[in-house]
From TrEMBL:
The keyword Ligase applies. Keywords: Ligase. InterPro entries: AMP-bd_C, AMP-bd_C_sf, AMP-binding_CS, AMP-dep_synth/lig_dom, ANL_N_sf. This is Cyclohexanecarboxylate-CoA ligase. Signal peptide: none annotated. Residues 316-335 are annotated as: Disordered. It comes from Streptomyces fructofermentans. Residues 409-481 form the AMP-binding enzyme C-terminal domain. One of its GO terms (molecular function) is medium-chain fatty acid-CoA ligase activity. Residues 19-359 form the AMP-dependent synthetase/ligase domain. Belongs to the ATP-dependent AMP-binding enzyme family. It comes from the Bacteria. One of its GO terms (biological process) is fatty acid metabolic process.
């Protein structure tokens, strides 16, 4: 990290960070979207005018404002306007609907709710009114605006809770995760430190800015003073035009994004998919080593992967100067200030980037151990060089006849099979064995027919123990995925196949 970036990383609040960057490089761009450009000074001044407009709507320091907006320049301006006011903001993923949105509004105690109107064919304003949302206002092309002279002083304390992010509810309601400005700045600093970026880079935000990765990435832009391309909708090959037009050097998001870029590259192997691209980076989902090696070999870029979660936006990150082996098989190393403790194979965390807990006090009490370490539920170990290797989730361990089987181990091996595009290995209830191993496969275009015997023969040739071999194979057109980082939703597969017997 440069001296300037390190100094900016000591900012107490988001707004202090915005002001310090605007003073350093006011005319440099920070956000690029289609034919629009926003500079660091325009981010500061535009957010301040929007803060005055929000003040006119009755938003005050400490007041809770929820927003459900797509990845747009206006969304970032609104988030920073709330940071200027010292309000508590609760971003909601744009794809959530009545049940999840009602829950988030009720649990957070939001007094205002910003929506995009009709977006991608869905009327968010009508939904907000139907569920009785408070203080509804639209914030898509325009934002509330006013005279900044009416504003109270900006917040000075960066350790108050000012962000409520939501875990993706799968088998239960989402959990409201409590963050401070300082915890998010610490998380973004970790990302920036690991990737070794410079003011000459051009990044990209192709995932919902409402995700915890949104403010995480914005911190990195503010620390280093480089811009990012915003994509309201990510789809390939359509989005490639934006990457090429703006000369993006750093892209990514999660493993699903890597695979989508790789699939497009394979359609034109003789030319670079994005000529300016030099680095793919991301996290949020497991990264099979085979995917890493394929991206590096076929796209001609570096690939660095990290480990983060809503509760801790950045825990470890691969660095471009890591060895190829570490980049392929680990999640990188933690930055200074992030403590990792392995207890009975489980990863536990303590540091400034760790959340303050949950809205639900009982959930918070269960989330931390007696030494203040966050209990993640992830399984892993640290190597001699300090790199973290994740081996699965406690809930993702299949127990067959009393033997523990790592779903990730089987998945990583199957990613090397030429007729497997993506795969999810799950445990299904079985009266005789407790659980049986089921592999659910999404095949690449042009793949041949896949049988269970072919899968097990391949895995045995790769050295997998017999007791870990799948006993059931399901081939699907597409694995069910979440809308944010495109993670596979295994609970849906368990629901679909729990009643089947093969």
């Amino acid at each position: 990290m440069t001296d300037t970036a390190h100094a900016l990383g000591t900012s107490r609040t988001f707004w202090e960070l915005v002001e310090r960057r605007a003073a350093l490089t006011p005319d440099r761009p920070v956000l690029l979207q289609e034919d629009r450009t926003l500079t660091f000074e325009e981010l500061r001044s535009g957010a301040e005018r929007a803060a005055a407009g929000l003040h006119g709507l009755g938003v005050r320091p400490g007041g809770v404002v929820a927003w459900q907006l797509p990845t747009r320049i206006e969304t970032v301006l609104l988030a920073m306007a709330l940071a200027r006011l010292g309000a508590v903001q609760s971003p909601v993923i744009p794809f959530y609907r009545d049940r999840e949105v009602s829950f988030a509004l009720r649990e957070s105690g939001a007094a205002h709710f910003a929506v995009p109107g009709v977006w991608r064919g869905f009327d968010h304003t009508a939904m907000a009114r139907d569920i009785g949302a408070p203080g509804v206002f639209e914030a898509y092309d325009t934002l509330p605006a006013g005279d900044p002279s009416v504003l109270p002083p900006p917040p000075a304390n960066g350790t108050d809770v000012r962000w409520i992010h939501w875990t993706s509810g799968t088998t239960s309601d989402p959990k409201g995760v409590l963050h401070t400005d300082r915890s998010l700045i610490a998380g973004g600093s970790c990302l920036a430190h690991a990737l070794h970026l410079s003011a000459d880079d051009i990044g990209s935000i192709a995932f919902p800015f409402a995700h915890i990765g949104g403010p995480d990435y914005l911190v990195m832009l503010l620390l280093y003073g480089f811009p990012a391309v915003l994509l309201e909708k990510f789809a390939l090959p359509e989005s490639l035009e934006d990457y090429r037009k703006h000369g993006v050097t750093v892209a990514g998001g999660s493993t699903a994004f890597y695979s989508m870029f790789l699939a497009e590259q394979r359609k034109r192997p003789q030319s670079r998919l994005i000529p300016s691209l030099r680095l793919l980076a991301g996290g949020g989902a497991p990264k099979p080593p085979e995917v890493h090696h394929a991206v590096v070999a076929e796209m001609g870029v570096r690939l660095t992967h990290g480990y983060g979660m809503t509760e801790v936006p950045m825990i470890t990150m691969g660095s471009p100067d890591d060895t190829e082996e570490n980049l392929a098989t680990t999640e990188g190393r933690p930055p200074e200030g992030m403590e990792i403790r392995i207890v009975d194979g489980e990863v536990r965390l303590r540091g400034e980037a760790v959340c303050r807990g949950y809205l639900d006090a009982e959930q918070s009490a269960r989330a931390f151990d007696e030494d203040g370490f966050l209990i993640t539920g992830d399984l892993g170990h640290l190597t001699g060089s300090g790199h973290l290797v994740l081996t699965g989730r406690l809930k993702d361990v299949i127990i067959r006849k009393g033997e523990n089987i790592s779903a990730k181990e089987v998945e990583d091996l199957l990613h090397g099979h030429p007729d497997v595009g993506d795969v999810a290995v799950i445990g299904l209830p079985d009266a005789e064995r407790g659980e049986r191993v089921c592999a659910v496969v999404e095949q690449p275009e042009g793949a041949g027919e896949l049988s269970l015997s072919a899968v097990t023969s391949y895995l045995r040739a790769e050295g997998l123990s017999v007791h870990k071999l799948p006993e059931q194979l399901e081939v699907v057109d597409a694995l069910p995925r979440g809308e944010t980082l495109r993670k596979v939703l295994k609970y849906k597969l368990r629901e679909r196949y729990s009643g089947t017997v093969k």
